[in-house]
Structure formats: structure tokens, C-alpha cells
Design brief:
heterodimer, A: 347 residues, mainly alpha, 39% helix, elongated, B: 435 residues, mainly beta, Porin, 2 helices, disordered N terminus
């Protein structure tokens, strides 16, 4: 058994180390370290030596290019390049005319000014420059600040792209995407619609996103898998978090039909143990502790306005006394409906 | 045992003709399944009912429209869904989720219609009304107001058709008396753009329901990136009716090591103040809770990313809780042909909690065929309905028949405390028209 585990781990590690064919070609060796240009040596190479210039996107070289110097060019090509792949995956191609950029004074005709990865770590850094490279130019900085993306990106592509360099949706993003949306809703709107927000936040939709998209492997849907069993634990773990999308009537509607609601007249069984709210000071009287910790959980069943059974006892002069915590302040008039339940008669 | 079949057809089209453009998307779901009130009322055997609704989702987004001689100043979005066929005691159901048009000219923007606001109280408010924004240099001011959107026009907010609510929603004694007139909201937000990618904002949000003031919240938030590898942010919401903080968050993002980004965050919430002020129970106060968490993703290898999250919660009644998760994403080939995900999570919510294990994989078999398999097991500290373990698995096969046409078949199998065996099937067809 132990050997099987070792074999499994070793297989995983070896497979993880397998390098992509995309960047296996030794660019650095050909461009920077090749002994060239002298008598008896091959001519020095530049990027256009292999990548056909004059196109919007320079081409991927063919085996014939390798054969120009190498006797076994076809085999070398198959080993080093393999099946030619698109320069950029579908959806990530940008509207980028190479020729005018190469003629810029900052670039000086050198492809590697942007494609630094070509002479960097072989098989490591991507050959495609990150967007930060583009934003090094003053003109593109301005466009970026004005949320103008369509000069470089095709509009239909925007919804398929993930911002990896300037607004990475990775570590901790799930917790703060709402903050980013508040800060710059316009930027979000470049790729997302209000409907895309609604797909998760609008709980009135008949089909949840986790049901409609079961193949979305990397989406961390909150309600994926057996959420029904987990929901009391999730609610208790981070009290109040459910209220981001849900409101208390939803809880009650479901609890009522499942017979765990204390709603008067619902014929539901109390989910609480014996002595839960009786016997002042008794060891089984734990409802106050639970309520202090998460009153939202109580509200999921008990919040029926004036009919709320909590305020039958928790009012001035009654057994439960004032419900307000120490330091409670409110600027609402006592005649307001919520206050009037105890302080001013029924609303 | 429950069977669920969903057939859906998506369609989208985009007209790239500038300056006017439009994106439309239509999604149709046809479902058939047996539903039952599980576990049902105590002592009652649930009755199985057949449901076969057809649901249509449609959305349209447009922009680049000229108005009064000003070019490219009007944009907008409309989205709605409708359902036909028996489900949850209804045969017809529909709602409009967004319908707005925006005029933007220079520093001025006006947005009219059904839209959403993201007030500082971390809520997500949909309303029918107007918002007005003005930008003057680094300062941006936005104000909004309107009637809070109620599901199906006049149902209580959030009283969504959950699939089994039945009589509970029809008995007026069980609900707050509500009508649309009393549900209105208004608010404003001022944002200042600062150097070093900094932003500082303050907002006010007030929301009423039929009973009275539901939320009256002042919020402040800010973010700063003093150096390129360090991001700081914080926000807080103060309930103005009780002059107490309802919620606060702060975080630090460190990307000094690009392959090991680290994020640390702190959360404070007082659940009672997240209830509407009109709730009697909000007057009980309750204890706040604190959470301190951290998250990191380590790119151990070119193809392997390991993500770890951990958080500990402190409740003011001296109890504690915790959440931890360790996961990996392995892409042995850079073009994403194969992706393997694994997760192990532990959640402590004394006296309960659970352990989760998950393993999923996606395999681009050929450029046209993709298969996914995703499974999870949950082991509960305290058995749920006497059952300590849940097993779930989802499998799907997707076929990219044409660049504009793809189809998917999936099946979900579950063994949970609520069903000895549950099987769901889903079929989906996606059609995209042009671009």
C-alpha cells in the first residue's frame, strides 16, 4: 500500500514537471548565445529570421527554417517546436499591428523589448508579453485609465478574458469583488453585465447558477454539492453572511414547509430541545446564548413582526425584561412600527 | 430518488457595427423532475409531484447610441426571465431583473430604470428609479433613489419560490404585510481618486420597507497601493439608527513574490445590525463576531498551483470557530487541456462542523470534446438526520460541434442525509450567433 502511494505521488510530480510544448524552443540559444557571424560560423539570427515579418501577427516558423542550418532540421523542429500552435489562444488575440510598434523609437526594432521571455528562462516566462508591458506606454496608460479596452481587445473577447495582471481575480477575490464593484463599477461593466451579477446575487431566479452550470469546475459556487445539510453550519460559521443575498422570509418559507419553524399556526415541530426557553437560569435554557451569537438564525423563523414570540417575554415588565443590549441607542421614534410593538402599542 | 432533466438552449448575438452595438443572449431551459417535500411535515410521507417548467432567460445589452447630436452617449441593459409549466403550484411565472438605460456625456451620467446599488452595508439592492453621477477631477459623486424591486412586482422581498414553499407564502398571517409603496430607497456616494492607485469613498444608504426604516447606513471604504506589490483596503458600515458598526473589513495583499501572493483579511460583523431595522429582533443586539483569515496561492511548479485558506472566528461569547482549506490546481499542459482540482476543507462550528474532500478534473479530449468529473465527500461532526456522510458526484460531457454550437450532457448523483439516492440529469445546448 505504501509503495502504491509513493508511486502515485511520484507519478504526479513527474507529470507536473512535464513542460509545455508552447515554449520549448531555445530562443535564448539562437538569439543571444549562438556563436555566429564570423568565418565558418552561421549567420547571426534575429527574430524575423524565423518569424515572417510584415504580418499583423508574425508567423510560426516551419521545419524548413530549421533545415536551413541543421541537417536534421525536420527532426529538430518536431522535437523543439512540435505542432505549430496559434501565437495566442483563441480569445486572447489582440488587435496589434507589429510593424508600427517595431518602428517606435523605444522599441528600436527589437522584438525582445516586449517579448523578453524569448531570451529569458527557456520554457519559463511566457513569450507573450503581459498587459503591463503594453501599459508601459503613455498612450495605453491613458486608454486604460479611461476604461477603453477595445483599441487592443475585440469586444466579444472581453467577456472571455480574465484580467491577470492589473485586476487578478485570484487570491481573496471572492471576498472583495463586491468592494471592487463599488469602487469602479464602470471597469467591471467592461466585461460583465448586471445580469452576470444577478446570476448569483438574485435569489429570485428559478435556476441557481450551480445547477445551470454543473461543468463549471473552477467556479466556487456557494451552494454546490450537498448544501442542504451544510447550510445551518455555514450560517452559524459566519453569522449574517447569508443576508448578503437572502432575506429572512426565505428562511421561514422553507423552514415552515419542512416543519422546523416555530411560526404560530404552522403545525411545525419545535427544533429546540426541552427547556430551551424555560426555567430561568436552568442549564437547558440556552436560547439566550444562541440568540446573542446569531440573532439572524432566530430571525429565520421567529421574525413575524408584532407576532414574534420573543417579544412576548422580552419586554419591559415581562419575564424576559428589556431586549436591548447595553449601550443600545436608536433615533427611531417609539411610535415607529418596530418600536411600537413594545413601546407604543401595535402599529 | 429524484430525477431532474434540464434541456437548455442558449443563443447570443453581437453586432459589432460601431458606433452602435448590441449583445443579446437567450437561454431556454426545459426541465422535468419529480419533487417532494423532503422531509415533509413531521410524520408525513412526502408526496411526489411532477414538474416540467420551461424557463426562458433573455438579456440585451446595447451601447454607442447617439442622442441630441452627442455621439456614443446612451447605453443600457434589459434582462428578464419567464417560466411556463407546473412547478411549485404555479403554471406561469416571470420577472424582470434589469431594465435600465444610461446617458453618459463627459462628466455627467444619468441612469434610469431597474438597476442595482451596492450600498456600504454589503447589501445588493435592486430598485426601480434613477441614479445621477457627476465626476469632477478626482471626485465622483453619485446619488440614487427609487422603489425597491419586489419579486414578481409585489411579493415580499426575498419570498422567492423555493420549490416547496406552498402554503407558507400564501398565508398572510405568516408574512409581514407588504406592498410596493412602502419599499423605497435612496442613497449617495462620494469617491475620491488618490495617488498610488488610491481611492477613498463615503456613502449613505437608506432603505424603507412597509414597516419603516429598514437600513440607514453610513459607509466608508478605501484602498491604496503604496508600492506595486502591496495592496491595502478597508471598509466599514455604521448603522445610524443604533450608532454602532454593523460590519467592517480590512485586508492586505502582498504580491512581492509573484508566485506566492498572500492575502490577509479581517472581518467584523454584528449580525443583528444586518437585519432590517424594522425587525423586532434587531433590537436584541446580539454579539459581534470577528474573523481573521489568510489565503495564499503557491505556484509550486509551472503546472501546479496550491492554494491554502485559513480563518479563525471569534465570537464574543468566548466561543470560536475555524475554516481551513487546502487545494491544488494541476495543469500538466499549459494549454489547459487537462485540469485537475483537489480540495480538502475543515470547518469548525462548535458543536458541529464538517470535513470536505473534493476531486475534480476536466479533460479536453479533442478540440471538440471536453469531459469533466467532480466529486465531493462531506463528513459531518454531528450526523445530520442520523447520517454522518454525504457523497456527491457530477459528471459532464461537452461537445463543441461548431464554433457557434455546443452541447452538454451531465449527471449528478448524491447520497445525502436527505435522500438515500438522488440522481439528476441535465442537457444543455448553447448556440452563439455571430460576433
Amino acid at each position: 500500500m505504501k509503495r502504491a502511494w509513493i508511486a502515485l505521488v511520484a507519478t504526479l510530480v513527474l507529470a507536473a514537471c512535464a513542460r509545455s510544448l508552447l515554449t520549448r524552443f531555445p530562443h535564448r540559444q539562437h538569439l543571444a548565445t549562438l556563436d555566429c557571424g564570423t568565418e565558418g560560423k552561421p549567420p547571426c539570427l534575429s527574430c524575423p529570421s524565423c518569424h515572417q515579418a510584415g504580418q499583423a501577427t508574425p508567423s510560426t516558423p516551419t521545419a524548413q527554417k530549421c533545415s536551413g542550418c541543421h541537417g536534421d532540421g525536420t527532426q529538430i523542429f518536431a522535437r523543439a517546436v512540435g505542432t505549430p500552435r496559434p501565437v495566442a489562444p483563441t480569445g486572447k488575440q489582440i488587435l496589434f499591428p507589429h510593424a508600427p510598434h517595431l518602428s517606435l523609437s523605444q522599441v528600436k526594432g527589437q522584438c525582445v523589448m516586449c517579448h523578453a521571455g524569448a531570451v529569458g528562462l527557456e520554457g519559463g516566462a511566457p513569450l507573450l508579453p503581459p498587459m503591463a508591458t503594453c501599459l508601459g506606454c503613455h498612450e495605453h496608460e491613458q486608454q486604460f485609465a479611461q476604461n477603453v479596452c477595445t483599441n487592443c481587445h475585440r469586444k466579444p473577447d472581453l467577456v472571455k478574458l480574465e484580467p491577470v495582471s492589473f485586476l487578478p481575480h485570484d487570491t481573496g477575490w471572492g471576498k472583495r469583488h463586491g468592494f471592487a464593484a463599488r469602487m469602479s463599477a464602470e471597469r467591471c461593466a467592461l466585461c460583465h453585465t448586471q445580469t452576470s451579477c444577478d446570476s448569483c446575487h438574485d435569489t429570485t431566479r428559478p435556476l441557481g447558477p450551480q445547477v445551470a452550470n454543473p461543468n463549471a469546475l473552477e467556479r466556487e459556487y456557494v451552494h454546490r454539492f450537498d448544501f442542504l445539510s451544510r447550510h445551518p453550519m455555514e450560517a452559524a460559521s459566519q453569522p449574517g453572511l447569508c443576508l448578503t443575498c437572502h432575506v429572512k422570509t426565505e428562511c421561514d418559507a422553507c423552514h415552515l414547509t419542512r416543519g422546523v419553524s416555530a411560526t404560530p399556526g404552522a403545525n411545525g415541530a419545535s427544533p429546540h430541545p426541552l427547556g430551551w426557553a424555560s426555567g430561568l437560569g436552568a442549564a437547558t435554557n440556552l436560547h439566550a446564548l444562541a440568540a446573542r451569537r446569531d440573532i439572524g438564525a432566530c430571525a429565520s423563523c421567529h421574525d413575524q413582526g408584532p407576532a414574534t414570540n420573543c417579544v412576548r417575554c422580552h419586554k419591559v415588565g415581562a419575564l424576559g425584561g428589556s431586549p436591548h443590549p447595553v449601550g443600545w441607542r436608536s433615533f427611531e421614534p417609539v411610535q415607529s412600527p418596530a418600536c411600537a410593538v413594545c413601546h407604543g402599542g401595535t402599529p | 430518488m429524484r430525477w431532474l432533466l434540464i434541456v437548455s438552449v442558449f443563443g447570443s448575438s453581437a453586432s459589432a457595427a460601431e458606433p452602435v452595438w448590441a449583445d443579446a443572449r437567450v437561454a431556454t431551459f426545459a426541465q422535468y423532475f419529480q419533487q417532494a417535500l423532503l422531509p415533509g411535515q413531521p410524520g408525513v410521507v412526502g408526496q411526489l409531484e411532477s414538474a416540467f417548467p420551461v424557463t426562458l432567460n433573455a438579456s440585451l445589452r446595447f451601447g454607442g447610441v447617439d442622442l441630441f447630436g452627442a455621439p456614443d452617449v446612451v447605453s443600457g441593459e434589459v434582462a428578464a426571465w419567464g417560466s411556463l409549466g407546473p412547478r411549485d403550484g404555479r403554471n406561469v411565472d416571470a420577472d424582470v431583473t434589469s431594465a435600465w438605460a444610461m446617458y453618459r456625456n463627459g462628466a455627467l451620467r444619468v441612469k434610469l430604470g431597474r438597476q442595482v446599488a451596492l450600498p456600504g452595508a454589503s447589501r445588493y439592492v435592486r430598485f426601480d428609479g434613477a441614479s445621477l453621477g457627476i465626476r469632477a477631477g478626482p471626485i465622483d459623486v453619485e446619488a440614487y433613489g427609487g422603489f425597491v424591486a419586489l419579486p414578481r412586482w409585489n411579493q415580499p422581498r426575498g419570498a422567492t419560490v423555493l420549490g416547496f414553499v406552498g402554503d407558507g407564502l400564501d398565508n398572510p398571517l405568516l408574512l409581514e404585510a407588504q406592498n410596493r409603496a412602502g419599499h423605497f430607497t435612496l442613497g449617495a456616494r462620494v469617491t475620491a481618486t488618490l495617488p498610488l492607485e488610491g481611492r477613498l469613498a463615503a456613502g449613505f444608504h437608506e432603505q424603507h420597507d412597509q414597516v419603516g426604516v429598514a437600513f440607514r447606513v453610513l459607509s466608508v471604504d478605501g484602498a491604496l497601493r503604496p508600492v506595486p506589490w502591496l495592496g491595502l483596503g478597508a471598509r466599514a458600515s455604521i448603522d445610524l439608527t443604533s450608532l454602532a458598526p454593523a460590519e467592517a473589513r480590512a485586508w492586505i495583499d502582498v504580491t512581492r513574490l509573484t508566485n506566492v501572493p498572500v492575502s490577509v483579511d479581517y472581518v467584523y460583523q454584528r449580525p443583528a445590525l444586518l437585519l432590517p431595522r424594522s425587525s423586532v429582533l434587531a433590537a436584541f443586539g446580539g454579539d459581534p463576531w470577528h474573523e481573521l483569515g489568510a489565503e495564499t496561492s503557491v505556484r509550486a511548479l509551472e503546472s501546479l498551483t496550491v492554494t491554502g485558506r485559513g480563518a479563525v472566528q471569534f465570537f464574543d461569547d468566548a466561543r470560536y470557530g475555524g475554516r481551513g482549506q487546502l487545494g491544488f490546481r494541476w495543469r500538466p499542459v499549459l494549454d489547459g487541456r487537462v485540469t485537475v482540482l483537489g480540495q480538502f476543507a475543515r470547518v469548525l462550528v462548535p458543536p458541529s462542523g464538517y470535513v470536505q474532500g473534493r476531486l475534480g478534473a476536466r479533460w479536453l479530449v479533442t478540440p471538440a470534446w471536453t469531459a469533466t468529473l467532480d466529486g465531493a465527500v462531506y463528513v459531518y461532526d454531528v450526523p445530520v438526520r442520523g447520517v454522518p456522510v454525504s457523497l456527491t458526484a457530477i459528471g459532464s460531457v461537452e461537445w463543441l460541434a461548431r464554433p457557434w454550437l455546443r452541447a452538454m450532457l451531465s449527471a449528478t448523483a448524491m447520497r445525502t442525509p436527505w435522500a438515500a439516492f438522488e440522481l439528476q440529469g441535465l442537457a444543455r445546448i448553447v448556440v452563439e450567433f455571430g460576433s
